[in-house]
Structure formats: structure tokens, C-alpha cells
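Aim 2 progress update. The chain analyzed this quarter is reproduced below.
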Amino acid sequence: MARKHRAEEEDASIDMTPMLDIVFIMLIFFIVTTSFVKEAGIEVNKPDASNATKQKSANIFIAINEDGDVWMDKREVDVERVRANIERMLAEQPTEVVIIQADEKAEHGKVVEVMDQVKAAGISRISVAAKGG
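Predicted C-alpha cells:
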């Protein structure tokens, strides 16, 4: 009785191409849907507030230190340039809220000037950061 022999056995392998395609699609999805926060760039001593609430979604932060210097996107800006910087940031990523982190020793007038610039840029919801107490 003659036996049939296989000349070559096929290699059992798994095709990785579909899995790599899915991984790359997921990577692209997460990159596109990620929101980037525009930090102010400096730390300030925020005033205490007993009824402070946590702000959920804000992408733009503006810091005002005790000397009256205004910081946005990790760089110092003039008060007159706040509106233009916010409009540029809104073009990159729209948001409804801007958070102002004013030092407790910052002049009230400077904070109001920054708030006016934010309103002029088209954002009506402005939050002032405070330490919860």
C-alpha cells in the first residue's frame, strides 16, 4: 500500500495586517478627539473661597500675577493682545469657557481689563479660579 506524503507542510501563520490597521485607526481617532488645554504658564496664589465650584470643561487659562503681568499659553502678553490670542486659540479649538487665574494681590482693574478683552473675543462665560476652602 502506497502512502501519500506531503511534499511541504504549509506554515501556520497569522496575518497581522488587519490588526495593525485597526491599531492605527484607533490611534488616529484618539489624536483627533483629544482636547488640548492651553495652560497659562505660571502659578499664582489664588484667593480662598468657601463656595468654590469645580469647572468641568475649559481649554483656555489666563494667569495674572501680583505684578499685573498677564500670561497665556506659557508666555507673557500685553492686556491689549489678550483678545487676539483668544481668537487664535478659538480658531484652533473652540471652547465656551475661559478661566482667569488671578493672584490674590493682583489689581482688580487689571482683572477687569482682561475680562473685557475675553468678552470682546466672543466668550461670555468667564470663571475666576479660587482655592476651595
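The mean pLDDT is 82. The domain at 48-132 is CATH 3.30.420.270 (Nucleotidyltransferase; domain 5). These observations will guide the mutagenesis experiments scheduled for the next reporting period.
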